[in-house]
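#onboarding

Welcome to the new folks! Below is a worked example of what a typical request in this channel looks like: someone posts a single protein sequence, and someone else replies with the predicted structure as tokens. Don't worry about understanding the tokens yet, we'll cover that in week two.

Example request:
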Amino acid sequence: MALQATVHASAVLVGARAVLIRGPSGSGKSKLARELIEGARGNGSGFARLVGDDRVHLETASGRLLVRAAEALAGFLEVRGIGVLRVDHEPVAVVGLVVDLNAADAERLPEPERQRTEIEGVLLPRLAVAAGAAALPTVLAHLISGRTPA
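Example response:
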């Protein structure tokens, strides 16, 4: 396993795979993480649990990208206007989707090459979300469709 430096991101295990949420400070990473978790709990449609918020470690193993919380932040989720809350979390998960918030290259109908990203040699589906756009509906549509960009 190759450990990568800690990255500024959040991650939520949704079903069997994690959604890795990247973006600049204040872009809504924690908000999207919370919405994914609350949505699964509220409608009983599936499983979603925090892996890490704000900073996560990424590592490769057997051609997969694994994500885990930075040790000091494990089990904590920031809720803007309230503070930092302790929540249940998964210790490690396999990344299945990368969401880039406030992405400068977000398009209504992106080319296939913009729907993928490579992290530590692992090719992953990617959603680029424009600044000010609601990320949750796009992420849910991707997860529900099971679509893997070409």
